[in-house]
Design a protein that fits this description.
The chain has eight helices and eleven strands. Helix 5 packs across helix 8. The two termini are about 20 Å apart. The structure holds zinc ion (ZN).
């Protein structure tokens, strides 16, 4: 799933192409499963009626969410989920059954290019609503702070508020927004913290270290246009290159680049964690069941 750096890369690509553009036409080859239109935006409740003729004023990222603000206080909320992608392609691109939504902008006459929302698994969101309504949506309103702009003190305070396993806290979008498996595993590895350690048992100094690693990894990945380990691609089809620098994620069975011990993969909750059993010492005893 695209995480903060990948979504940020997509947002920057979209911003350059669609900001200030008016949507002239939309065609559908299939709908994302999570497509919806609020009756406050269009009584016809179709994406076509809700978006055609409106201008995209700005494109922002919040966590892993893409927020496009259009004229008349209309918001297009996109979440790429597992396999959502945007592509900006010449209109004579080969047909593809996973091209679900195709946008043409006023610039089409000049560029001959269309913006395509492609989603193989179809879990991506495509929701149209007003900005007030966005503020009440679960999955948006409960997002935690942005890791690139929050302070280390704030991170430590949140982590110490209640005990939970580090890995699960980092993945929880209401704890901090935008982190997923890749950057959780890599930052825990960098800080030599076991993914099952409880947040409340980690010192302020070590949590600050973890946070600093997380920020550095996220920023470095944005600079390299994200990590392409699965289907993630930038808007012009470009792959990110941060995967070259992954030290623990997806490397189970390989030697730890620090100590040579074999890296492990372990289920924590419903997700996998990759770590070094020697550099990242297991907590002696976890007072919480593994699944919580
Ligand atoms: Zn190691």
């Amino acid at each position: 799933m695209p995480e903060l750096p990948e979504v940020e890369t997509v947002v920057r690509g979209l911003r350059a192409i669609v900001s200030g553009q008016t949507i002239r036409a939309i065609t559908f080859r299939g709908l994302p499963k999570n497509a919806s239109v609020s009756p406050r935006v269009s009584r016809h409740r179709t994406l076509h009626a809700a978006l055609t003729g409106r201008t995209i004023e700005r494109v922002d990222r919040r966590g892993k969410n893409i927020i496009m603000r259009l004229t008349d206080d209309v918001v297009l909320w996109v979440h790429l989920k597992m396999t959502g992608q945007f592509h900006y392609l010449p209109a004579d691109h080969p047909p593809d059954k996973h091209h679900l939504v195709i946008y043409r902008f006023e610039s089409f006459e000049e560029t001959g290019k269309e913006l395509i929302f492609r989603d193989y698994r179809r879990f991506g969101y495509h929701k149209v609503l007003t900005s007030d309504e966005l503020q009440t949506q679960p999955g948006y309103t409960d997002l935690g702070p942005e890791p690139l702009t929050m302070s280390a003190e704030e991170f430590v305070a949140l982590a110490h508020r209640r005990p939970r396993q580090l890995k699960q806290a980092l993945l929880d979008q209401s704890f901090i927004a935008g982190c997923g498996n890749i950057y959780a595993d890599e930052s825990l590895f960098a800080a030599r913290l076991h993914p099952r350690r409880l947040t409340t048992t980690v010192s302020k100094r070590k949590l600050t270290e973890l946070f600093t690693h997380l920020q550095t990894l996220l920023q470095r990945s944005i600079d390299l246009m994200g990590t392409s380990v699965d289907t993630y691609r930038g808007i012009n089809g470009q792959v990110g290159s941060f995967q070259k620098y992954l030290l623990a994620y997806n490397r189970e069975g390989e030697p730890c680049p620090r100590c040579g011990q074999t890296l492990r993969r372990e289920k924590i909750g419903s997700r996998s964690a990759h770590y070094c059993p020697k550099c990242q010492r297991a907590p002696r005893r976890s007072p919480l069941p593994l699944s919580k």
